[in-house]
Amino acid sequence: ASAEEDNSEDSGKSVSKDSKSDSSGERSVQIIIKPQTGSGSSTDSSEGQEPQFLPPIL
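The structure assignment produced for this chain is given below.
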């Protein structure tokens, strides 16, 4: 029973770690894209000729 419990915990820990890493990575990308989009939008409104720069970023 002890061995079984250990195995279960190890498996759960591994999955949890993987899941957390994946989530963190995905979120990191989203966070990085958000600031860029906001900055582009701000410049776009100020210059008006920035719209051409927005498509490449996307």
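Interim note for the steering committee: The two ends are 53 Å apart (CA to CA). The helical segments are 2-47, 54-57.
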